[in-house]
Write a structure and sequence with these properties.
Length: about 110
């Protein structure tokens, strides 16, 4: 089960295509990525060495690249695509009534 939090529309409008920003929602630091008219959300720190993912970039395949060691992650599912075995934690996004919400798992 998830608790859903609205992402302010102004934040979404401020993210250019193929760009990332770091935001805080419910005391969680999240990176939002705008790519191919879709949004993706994942944890703000690399699971390997804690580098800030928003300082990374997208490679030509659309994978998120960590700025410290150049590890690559699929923004859709967090899968490490460069072979190191780490997983970037991703968050579900859902559109409701033309607004975007992020889900945090209730434990």
């Amino acid at each position: 089960m998830y608790v859903w939090h609205k992402i302010e529309p102004e934040l979404l409008l401020s993210i250019g295509e193929n760009k990332m920003i770091e935001i805080t929602i419910a005391d969680k630091r999240i990176v939002l990525l705008h790519k191919n008219n879709n949004y993706y959300a994942f944890t703000s720190l690399c699971p390997h060495a804690g580098a800030p993912m928003c300082e990374g970039w997208l490679d030509v395949q659309g994978r998120v690249v960590c700025p410290m060691h150049k590890y690559r992650f699929d923004p859709k599912n967090g899968r490490n695509t460069s072979g190191e075995g780490y997983k970037l934690f991703t968050y579900p996004l859902e559109e409701k009534d033309s607004e975007l919400y992020i889900g945090f798992l209730i434990v």
